[in-house]
Hints:
Elements: H1 3-8, E1 17-22, H2 36-54, E2 64-75, E3 84-94, E4 98-107, E5 115-125, H3 138-145
Antiparallel strand pairs: 1-3, 2-5, 3-4, 4-5
Amino acid sequence: MSHHTKLKSRIRADYPFILEYRTRWSDNDMYDHMNNSIYNFLYDSVINTYLIEHCGLHPPTSQQYGMVVHSHNNYFASIAFPACAELALRVNRIGNSSVTYEIALFERGVNSVKAVGEFIQVFVDRTTKRPNPNGMSTSLREGLRSILIKSHL
Length: 153
């Protein structure tokens, strides 16, 4: 089975954290579905919601924060206003100062996944803007470990 086929077969149970998002009229584009740029906004939102609620991140004051260094998305089917989206999050890899997230977008009431994306963040020191030689903070690492999927392919 190809990697693309595996992603397309993702189900909600593959993800330990889910955040609901009610689409807005302005999310639709001229083709009457959610514009592709909105997916990145939503992926960023589910990641940061998780970091704030489960990893002790406080964006205005935390000594470390995550910078996105890579992102991509696989689109399988469209979603459109007024649908309710469910953003599903998991961690596929944790490095010294980096984390690889996988995010799936489902439509409430629909079993098949609409899109699966990947974000890679590197946590940097607020002062130096560089990764801390000691890696990410303990609270970040522990929170991220709780949604780490051991075998992600």
